[in-house]
Amino acid sequence: MLHPYDLLRNPFKFKNSLVILDVVSRPVLYNGTFVQYAEGYVDPRPGGQLSQTGLRFRKMVSQDTGLYDVMGLEGNFNASGDSDLLGEIAVVSSTQDAELDLDRRWKVEPLGTLQGTNAFGATLDVPVVRFWGYAAQVDGPSTPHE
């Protein structure tokens, strides 16, 4: 099981492999250090609408590529469950839907990175994955892939 935060840390580890991406769980960081994944904290359906999932749709950057924010919890885990933006990933998809479901795990193929620029003109690398479909629902918690 792979998480979007794992792609931020190493977008090449599973390049050209088909993996399951857990888009619901959010990483919990303390002083920038990974602690655990917050799973089962919110129902993913309304959680996706409230940006309390591991990914949040931002916008389409081309006809088949969407940009998603990678969300996490930084600092003390508070009762409000407010998420922090940790980075972005690009998702290439041939589906007709602009936004993919954030309440289901995805089957994806990590492709490496795309180069882009931020609002200040600085160059940055964004992990990119190809979306192949939704994974079958699995009972029980997922295990972080380190």
Describe this structure in words.
With 146 residues, the protein is mainly beta. The chain has two helices and eight strands. Strands 1, 2, 3, 4, 5, 6, 7 and 8 form an eight-stranded mixed sheet that branches. The longest helix has 6 residues, at 4-9. Residues 41-50 and 139-146 have low confidence and may be disordered.
Q: What is the beta-strand fraction?
A: 35-45%
Number of helices: 2
- Based on secondary structure, the structural category is mainly beta
Distance between the termini: 10 Å
| Beta strand count | 8
Radius of gyration (Å): 14 Å
Poorly predicted regions:
41-50, 139-146
Q: Report the helical percentage.
A: under 10%
Shape type: globular
Question: What value does the average pLDDT take?
Answer: 81
Largest sheet: 8 strands, mixed
Number of domains: 1
Order of helices and strands: HEEEHEEEEE
What is the gist of this entry?
The chain contains two helices and eight strands, in the order αβββαβββββ. The protein is mostly beta strands and 146 residues long. The chain has one domain.
